[in-house]
Design a protein that fits this description.
single chain, alpha+beta, six-stranded antiparallel β-sheet, four-stranded antiparallel β-sheet, globular
């Protein structure tokens, strides 16, 4: 009976350690800033489908307005080759996809998921909270 307790404890520890691993390639960095979408400085965020680029994160952040109350924010670092200085994500002219200029991976603006390309990871997404006046973007 004693051996079973040690075996179960060992299995539990192995599971706890393996669940805590972070295989996501983009490093974690603190992000916390506020945007006032109704301000003239942020006119591109006043309409659905509007987007703007901001400093912060690993390679900058793109914020996109989905609807009246919903925004998404993604790091502009491509998960495939984020450590190359020219590996940035750009919103495509159609406004519904993002593309890495280096590896040509294509991502959805809605959830950051991979559409095509060598990347197997989605874009790093930041938390957004909008209260009708100001938008918080944070990690």
């Amino acid at each position: 009976m004693k051996h079973i307790k040690y075996i179960l404890l060992g299995v539990f520890l192995c599971l706890a350690i393996s669940c805590d691993r972070n295989d996501f390639p983009i490093p974690r960095v603190p992000v916390n800033f506020w945007i006032y979408p109704n301000d003239v400085n942020f006119l591109d965020l006043n309409y659905y489908g509007g987007h703007m680029y901001f400093t912060g994160g690993v390679s900058g952040i793109v914020v996109y307005r989905l609807s009246e109350w919903e925004f998404t924010a993604f790091d502009r670092a491509c998960p495939y080759d984020w450590d190359h200085e020219d590996s940035w994500i750009w919103v495509e002219p159609g406004g519904i996809t993002l593309r890495c200029q280096r590896c040509e991976s294509l991502f959805s603006i809605l959830d950051g998921g991979v559409i095509t390309g060598p990347s197997t990871y989605p874009l790093k997404r930041y938390f957004t909270k909008y209260d009708g006046m100001r938008l918080q973007v944070r990690s």
